[in-house]
């Protein structure tokens, strides 16, 4: 297949607009998978993906298709739909020349449609809008087309209408791809230049690399070099995804496929790397900016004895997902564990679920925090990954020039009647409104700058409930700004409990302090003396609760008579003690920590 008979394309869409369903239909239509009706979302390989109905890791598939008397090779590169995985989206797009922008004709364009459109537009790809779900009685294709025109300034007059569910109009999708998306460039007579855009570990064959061949050809036995590490490899196998790996004799210019080359560890496969042939060096293709962690959370084994086994599982899982950052951490309350950085809270949930399902792990995950920054007068900058890193009150006075927090630039799309509620939501979450536009006569697109810390907790749930499910939301990182940060401390009878401290904006301390004190009161058992719970910031008490002392002795109800029962009770108490952590005179059971520190 010469490049002019190849098309490399992806489908981008807001979550649930039908991307996976359309991919399945196209694979059936071209005979890659059979029409048994059992092919639900073939590209969504991970169990988590199938369960949650979201695409996490990009996969791809090659199809053969005849059009206008010519045979074409069409490579569909899958992209994840959710905002947390926009990093995966941009690397999938680097392997394509164009993309189908799929819009649900009943819902119209949503926040992720906008975010994904700009990702593709920024990569210089041809964007072909198509309207899905026209079978729904609530579908309003004319209105959705109007939104596409006004939001993206692209002509939507001839936009394709289809139903990926019933199959209506699906036969016109691939002809449109061939006509509207340009073929890949590159030349067969130039030295090999291949972009590594995805990688995974296979139990049987080891590291598998997905590559887009930009120039030349690659075949079994070739000696190739990584531009990144200058390591040499011998290609053991090349092939296409059909949709399972299927060996071929070579991958030629314009093609997308997989190679295996005896890489020992997935850490050798740098996504964004360029491969060239040994002794024929070429200029490396522009790589990708590495993914940055947006949220951090502590992860601890429920059973401390499981640490070593879990450590291995965490290593394996992070090898397959290089966007997770890993640091070991020891907590006074929860023991040995890890501080992991994620792209967002959904990414965090998916990671936890994979750890539990694929590695049979039982873990505690602490509430998510964001990476704050401290700027010192001497020019140093420090990232605050845990509250223990936060400077002392004295250091804050003498050495710190500014405290900074990360921000996102958010896009929200909703019907006009929720304008008031959405503006209020942004303001409550310390957002700064940057403006709004109407994408049709009654739908608003609102732009707003928000502290990342405000969106990692319940922001999304509140957005949905305040808009009765009609608002959609997407965001991208937008750098750091100076912010009045403080460390909230928790004191039990005057003794600080470091494990419960948290860094936050001064404005949120009062509410968070009250909430923490009340939650602790609810889980601390009475002891033989009063326990004063206090939360404080900058030496000032924010909230105070008291757990009244226990009057009765545990053994009192035994009346001194039944010795064995008394022993049993005392032993039980001793066992309970093992799991107690002592703070000054106050003992806290492990469960109390879990209750207030972890997410459900
Ligand atoms: P992500 O992979 O999470 O981004 O979602 P997706 O965009 O792939 O959506 P998916 O294909 O999973 O479809 C979401 C839901 O919409 C499923 O319940 C589909 O059955 C349904 N659906 C997809 N296409 C159509 C359509 O043309 N008409 C109707 N009525 N329903 C559809």
From TrEMBL:
SUPFAM superfamilies attached to this UniProt entry: EF-G C-terminal domain-like, P-loop containing nucleoside triphosphate hydrolases, Translation proteins
InterPro entries: EF-4 (IPR006297), EFG_III/V (IPR035647), EFG_V-like (IPR000640), EFTu-like_2 (IPR004161), G_TR_CS (IPR031157), LepA_C_sf (IPR038363), LepA_CTD (IPR013842), LepA_IV (IPR035654)
A Pfam family annotated for this UniProt entry: EFG_C
Binding residues for GTP: 13-20, 78-82, 132-135
GO MF entries: GTP binding; GTPase activity; mitochondrial ribosome binding
Keyword field: GTP-binding, Hydrolase, Membrane, Mitochondrion, Mitochondrion inner membrane, Nucleotide-binding, Protein biosynthesis
Main location (coarse class): mitochondrion
Family: Belongs to the TRAFAC class translation factor GTPase superfamily. Classic translation factor GTPase family. LepA subfamily.
Function: Promotes mitochondrial protein synthesis. May act as a fidelity factor of the translation reaction, by catalyzing a one-codon backward translocation of tRNAs on improperly translocated ribosomes. Binds to mitochondrial ribosomes in a GTP-dependent manner.
Protein known as: Translation factor guf1 mitochondrial
Organism field: Coemansia javaensis
Name of the gene encoding the protein in the UniProt record: GUF1
């Amino acid at each position: 297949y010469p490049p002019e008979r190849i098309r490399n394309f992806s489908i981008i869409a807001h979550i649930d607009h039908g991307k996976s369903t359309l991919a399945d239909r196209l694979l059936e239509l071209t005979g890659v998978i059979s029409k048994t009706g059992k092919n639900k979302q073939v590209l969504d390989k991970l169990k988590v993906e199938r369960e949650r109905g979201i695409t996490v890791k990009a996969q791809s598939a090659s199809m053969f298709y005849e059009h206008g008397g010519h045979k074409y090779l069409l490579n569909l590169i899958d992209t994840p739909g959710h905002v947390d995985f926009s990093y995966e989206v941009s690397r999938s797009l680097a392997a394509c020349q164009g993309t189908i922008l799929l819009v649900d004709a009943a819902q119209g364009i949503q926040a992720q449609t906008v975010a994904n459109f700009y990702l593709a537009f920024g990569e210089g790809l041809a964007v072909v809008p198509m309207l899905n779900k026209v079978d729904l009685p609530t579908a309003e294709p004319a209105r959705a087309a109007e939104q596409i025109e006004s939001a993206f300034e692209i002509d939507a007059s001839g936009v394709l209408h289809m139903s990926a569910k019933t199959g209506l109009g699906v036969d016109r999708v691939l002809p449109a791809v061939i006509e509207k998306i340009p073929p890949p460039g590159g030349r067969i007579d130039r030295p090999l230049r291949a972009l590594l855009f995805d990688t995974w570990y296979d139990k049987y064959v080891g590291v598998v690399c997905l590559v887009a061949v930009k120039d030349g050809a690659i075949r079994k036995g070739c000696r190739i070099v990584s531009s990144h590490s200058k390591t040499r490899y011998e290609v053991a196998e090349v092939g296409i995804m059909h949709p399972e790996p299927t060996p071929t004799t070579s991958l030629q210019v314009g093609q997308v496929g997989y190679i295996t080359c005896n890489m020992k560890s997935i850490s050798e496969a740098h996504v964004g790397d360029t491969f060239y042939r040994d002794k024929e060096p070429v200029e490396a293709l522009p790589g990708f900016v590495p993914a940055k962690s947006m949220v951090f959370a502590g992860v601890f084994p429920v059973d401390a004895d499981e640490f070593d086994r879990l450590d291995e599982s965490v290593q394996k899982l992070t090898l397959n997902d290089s966007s997770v950052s890993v640091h070991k951490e020891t907590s006074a309350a929860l023991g040995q564990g890890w501080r992991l950085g994620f792209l967002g809270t959904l990414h965090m949930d998916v990671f936890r679920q994979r750890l539990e399902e694929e590695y049979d792990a039982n873990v505690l995950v602490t509430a998510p925090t964001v990476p704050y920054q401290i700027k010192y007068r001497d020019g140093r900058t420090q990232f605050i990954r845990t509250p223990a890193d936060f400077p002392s009150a004295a250091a804050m006075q003498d050495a710190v020039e500014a405290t900074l927090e990360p921000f996102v630039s958010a896009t929200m799309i909703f019907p006009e009647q929720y304008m008031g509620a959405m503006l209020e939501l942004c303001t409550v979450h310390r957002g700064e409104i940057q403006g709004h536009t109407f994408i049709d006569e009654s739908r608003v697109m609102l732009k707003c700058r928000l502290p990342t810390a405000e969106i990692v907790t319940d922001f999304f749930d509140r957005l949905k409930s305040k808009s009765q499910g009609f608002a959609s939301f997407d965001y991208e990182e937008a750098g750091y700004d100076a912010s009045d940060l403080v460390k909230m401390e928790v004191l039990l009878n005057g003794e600080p409990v470091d494990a419960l401290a948290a860094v936050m904006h001064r404005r949120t301390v009062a509410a968070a302090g009250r909430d923490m004190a009340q939650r602790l009161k609810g889980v601390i058992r009475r002891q033989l003396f009063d326990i004063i719970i206090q939360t404080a910031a900058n030496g000032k008490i924010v909230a105070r609760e008291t757990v009244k002392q226990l009057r009765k002795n545990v053994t009192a109800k035994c009346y001194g008579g039944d010795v064995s029962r008394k022993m049993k009770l005392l032993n039980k108490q001793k066992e309970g003690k093992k799991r107690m952590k002592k703070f000054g005179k106050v003992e806290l059971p492990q469960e109390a920590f879990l209750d207030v520190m972890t997410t459900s």
